[in-house]
Amino acid sequence: MDVELKMPDLSTTGSEVTLLNWLVEVGEEVKRGQPLVEIETDKATMEVESVAAGTVKELCAEPGTEVAVGAVIAIIEKAGSAAPAPDAVASARDTEKQPPARPASKPKPGSLFAKKKKPGTETPAKSSVIPQDAAMAFVGKRMQQSKQTAPHFYLQTSANADPMSARRQASEPKLVWDAFFVKAIGTALQEFDRMCCSIEGENLVRREEQSVGVAVSLDEALYVLPVRDPAGKSLEDISGEIRRNAEALRSGDKELRKLQPACLTVTNLGAANVEVFSAIINPPESAILAVGKIEPKPVVVDGEIVVQSRVNLVLSVDHRVVNGRYAADFLSRIVKELEETI
Q: What is the CATH architecture of 152-339?
């Protein structure tokens, strides 16, 4: 007996649900209650469990596609049931799935290339279709949604990175650079807690837990690893947590690949030799800090030109949550924390 697994109604907006990743393969034995697939609704990423014990007979949807609520996404052959003859199964399923046959259409005039070409003419170059990775498609969809719905504005400044460089050189093992920015943001959030708010409908909702996310690139997709309560942790603790989580993510940790919103995210392209850039806010967060590379620059200090290591910072902010002055004061506090690193 075949059991159909249907897409559950887990969305709060009634929209289609995105199928992210299958956790099983065709022919695999599964238990009742075993997670089969990861999906994304308008609110969260979650797993759908098997409704029966048996063998995975068919997976009916590809990763990265949107599936309507109630649509069949998998077929489980229930344990202990006798399977019909293969021809009968194929015949019945083909009858259910195939649309009515339509008469073949005649090619339109001019739609086919002539066998003989005029001198000097060339055959148009062929295009190749590259299937998009499901994780990349997921990130792209979220970023498109963010740019279309959140009124971004951008604040740019720079900070003296000499204190950070000295602190890092004195550490063993070396502190990861992102630890400094996570710590500075976490400390600033204690004073500017409105930055922990997000938009839900017509309301502002404040996250009770202060956390700062770190953007990590893996296989051309982006993931956010949250550091919880960074203000209450040392630089060493934050650095170790970032390093461990990044290694676990690259080792295939499925929990770390799930959507984990923070109050604000840090994205750092300094290692890629990028001096300055503006990032797209990661919803439902209200801001993201883009960090460029650290490099020596001439600056005027007490009327004299000196060389400092400087780092460019760009804060992207959702104008629905905070105004320009509030965000500017928040960014200034981050700079102050970075320059007073001990």
A: 2-Layer Sandwich (3.30)
